[in-house]
UniProtKB/TrEMBL annotation:
Residue span(s) of domain VOC: 8-123, 141-259
Any Pfam family: Glyoxalase
Parts of the chain that traverse the membrane: none
Top-level lineage group: Bacteria
InterPro entries: Glyas_Fos-R_dOase_dom (IPR004360), GlyoxalaseI/FosfomycinResist (IPR050383), VOC_core (IPR037523)
Protein name: VOC family protein
Length: 312
């Protein structure tokens, strides 16, 4: 289906004060592979993904979401997108140029309407990757990111207008109104979602495992290792994907998932789901309740990097 500016989600980059603990967590517990380091920056790949890395960690005094990165089709698309954004008064961090990160490529960064940094790129070298085998409870790829915004309607409108994201489903509550919008940039149910929150922050980053067995093995491994679980295991209705949410050492929520729905875009119509119905949040009924604890952890800390580009 045409009209998408982005082809797919590439990586999520985090700035963290507890850098060593974070590298240890994402490599030894979460199941990613450190593929490169550059001073106080570490790049971590998913074994099944052709992306050079799916998480970048940077040592910093303040915790922040450094950026979210998306792919586009080619260098021409990069230039055309940068030109359109500039004409629409979207603030660019810099003009399109050769990328200095692993895999190279051509791209640029800009600030979205909430002030978070977004990177787009093309022609990044494909990483040598492998098939994740049966029973391996490690991420195959980065599945999606969810972003908190105090004005989510504006945020959703921004990504629709400038990049052609399409609405797959919406979550609502009888007392609170519409609360989460699931947006896609390809046929997968969502590459991004926007949640109503008290401040701009990362809600969570989600990583796809090979299948149900690997997802449950990974969930169990983290529980045995004492990683703090927030919510799950269960299966959402929107997206029909499994979920187990945990906290990394810096308080960011990260998710193991699998079986995210792939849509027939010619026939799909968005749903408005009422998540006061427990079966909307968890079809299986196996997860702990979606309560104040889960919601508060998902709000995360206010992002201290808005409209300030990361130094690398």
């Amino acid at each position: 289906m045409s009209g998408y500016a982005f082809t797919h989600l590439r990586h999520v980059d985090l700035a963290v004060p507890d850098y060593d603990a974070q590298v240890e967590f994402y490599s030894k517990q979460w199941g990613l592979t450190v593929t490169a380091t550059d001073g106080d920056v570490a790049y971590l790949a998913a074994e099944g993904s052709p992306e050079q890395y799916v998480v970048r960690l940077r040592r910093a005094e303040d915790k922040r979401l450094d950026l979210v990165s998306y792919g586009v089709a080619d260098a021409l698309q990069v230039d055309q997108l940068a030109e359109r954004l500039a004409q629409d008064n979207v603030q660019l961090v810099g003009e399109p140029d050769t990328m200095q990160t692993p895999g190279g490529g051509y791209g640029f960064r800009f600030f979205d309407v909430d002030g978070r940094t977004v990177e787009v790129s093309a022609d990044v070298a494909v990483r040598t990757h492998r098939k994740v085998e049966e029973g391996e409870s490690i991420p195959v790829k980065l599945s999606h990111v969810v972003l908190n915004s105090p004005n989510p309607e504006r945020t959703v409108s921004f990504y629709d207008k400038h990049f052609g994201f399409r609405l797959s489903d919406t979550l609502m509550h009888p007392r609170m109104g519409e609360m989460m919008w699931f947006l896609r940039t390809n046929s997968h149910h969502h590459s991004m979602a926007v949640a109503r929150g008290p401040h701009v922050s990362l809600h969570h980053a989600s990583f796809e495992l090979r299948g149900i067995d690997e997802y449950m093995r990974g969930t169990g491994r983290l529980l045995r290792n004492g990683t703090e679980k927030i919510w799950g295991p269960g299966r959402h209705l929107a997206g029909n994907n499994t979920f187990s949410y945990f906290l990394d050492p810096n308080g960011n929520t990260v998710e193991y998932t699998t079986e995210l729905e792939v849509l027939d875009e010619d026939s799909w119509h968005p749903h408005l789901y009422d998540f006061s119905d427990p079966a909307v949040s968890d079809q299986w009924g196996t997860a702990n309740a979606m309560d104040e604890f889960v919601a508060t952890k998902s709000f995360n800390d206010p992002d201290k990097g808005l409209f300030v580009a990361p130094p690398v």
